Amino acid sequence: MYSAHLFEHKQIFAIREMKSMLDELGLDGVLAKRFRELSFPIQLYLEKLIQCRRLARLLDTPTRGLLAAQRIENKMTVGAENPLATSAQSRTSS
User: Fold this and answer.
1) DSSP secondary-structure letter at 9?
2) Burial tier of 68 (Cβ tally within 10 Å: 0-12, 13-18, 19+)
3) E strands within 7-66?
4) What is the total count of domains within the chain?
């Protein structure tokens, strides 16, 4: 869920927080990996930020270069296994 404010998110988690939360739920094999993915072209973000389409077009290529050089990771994928479902599945398959 996103906020109406510029680039503001409702919930932001660090990997350790996400792993801790899933561990508390009793899930096994919790794996969390961060990666960078922009939902929109960089120029769109620049236009919203600086309110000038021409300047955003000029800054698009240098900004792409800066982002490529940085290790900015803004999204996370998480995988975990429910041990109860796994044990029930192994009982039915034997």
Assistant:
1) B
2) exposed
3) 28-35
4) 1
47 is written with which tokens? 């236009």
pLDDT of the residue at 12:
75
Instruction: Identify whether 8 is part of a domain.
Output: no
Q: Sorting pLDDT into bands at 50, 70 and 90, what band is 2? A: very low
Give the range of the structural domain holding residue 33, as residue numbers without chain letter. Answer: 15-81
Asked if residue 5 is part of any domain, the answer here is: no
Instruction: Determine, yes or no, domain membership for 58.
Output: yes
- Cβ atoms of residues 78 and 22 within 8 Å: yes
Per-residue model confidence as pLDDT tens digits over 17-72 = 888 888 888 888 778 888 888 888 999 999 999 999 999 999 999 999 998 899 88
**One-letter amino acid for residue 13 of the chain:** F
Distance of CA 94 to the CA centre of its chain: 39
